[in-house]
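Dear support,

We are seeing what looks like truncated structure output for some complexes. This example has two components. We would appreciate it if you could run it in full and send us the complete token output so we can diff it against ours.
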Amino acid sequence: MAARSMLRSVWTSFAGLKVGATCPMVKVQQRIIVPQLPALTVQSRGIRQVVEKKDNKTTTIEGQILDVPAAPQPPNPTAKCPIYRWNLQHKYNYTDVLLLSQFIRSDGGLLPRKITGLCLEEHRKIAICVQMAHRAGLLPDHKPKLPEGHVPKRPKPQLNRYLTRWSIDSVKPIYKSGLKWSKRRMPVGDPALKDNVCYSVKPLYLKH
Amino acid sequence: MQWATFARSWFVIDARMQPPGKIATMCSVRLQGKHKPIYHAMSDCGDHVVVINTKQIAFSGNKWEQKVYSSHSGYPGGFKQVTAAQLHHKDPKAIVKLAVYGMLPRNLHRRTMMQRLHIFADDELPEDIQANLTEELPQPREIPRKLSEYTQEEIDAFPRLWTPYVQTVCCQIHTGGSINADNVFTHSAAHAHVIEYKHKHRWEEMNAASNVLNHFYTKISDYIL
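Here is the complete output from our reference environment:
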């Protein structure tokens, strides 16, 4: 990842420093917090190559920014949440796996909000969409690692499902569903995604 | 020409990853003959419908666990309530069959229309039915693509929404007590992206440079495998 390679460049830059006659002391003074740069200045930190130049007495260690093709600029750069920056507020669903996969770990869990920079509501919506995508089987490579030699006791029934709000084991069958005017409905989808853009004439039904 | 208007055609529907209710509405419309302009309830104008892959039917929501199919054998204590998952395990065709049965009109024609409905749990069809098929109906629900089905170019073409920022533990080099970034880097600090920050936290001083390098870390490395 870019972070790793950038780290490596910083590592090599410090490894190349000569602690000699010019600089007697090397001290860790403070934790330099590199803040998230406002998007107006620079979108992403470039990958730097460390170049050492030697004159007679002066040694110049420079990090030259490599020419990496710039990432496309978001249409709304002055926004805190990445989804608001790209104007995707009410436009994504559980099927948009390319979007959801950017916020998940390799074993399927969500990355923390402090790292991704999402606002609270969008973080929750993405969490719900990722849950639904997992239950629909749209993220087959993001399963948690089972310990080796683990054999399931009974084979799990492979049932196709989509828009599942509740977890599979937590739901009980509706034995008495009631009469027409007082039916116990089965929930589909999630009310958090109720404000999504609806391109069809029929509204989004959350209770079936 | 007019013989073709009254002909009984054979439709085939693939129920893979489809909700059984939507499949059943399409089936019932064609079994009654309501898709024809010459429809009349008394004139036997229904068509044959073949449903395949009913084993891979998909319910929305938690209906597999919540939907209950009840039946009574007629004998006392013969009331059975089975969840959709259990019924599907016992008989993969039953869910679609019951759905279509409930959508047909409640008259004596219903039984004959059910006889014209042919349900198969998987892809294999007997040859005589396969010979009769005329039209394949489009699937009601768009099947969403899995992440593994996207090509690498499509994944790369999708822009990255967020970039991680890094907290680094940096060493400061003293030259006679004065902290000056320019002594170390000849170019401006903007290039190196090291911004001098006011002391916010106190950290214990590390003496050897090697210790400093060992303590390099990012928050991201815990999450990225």
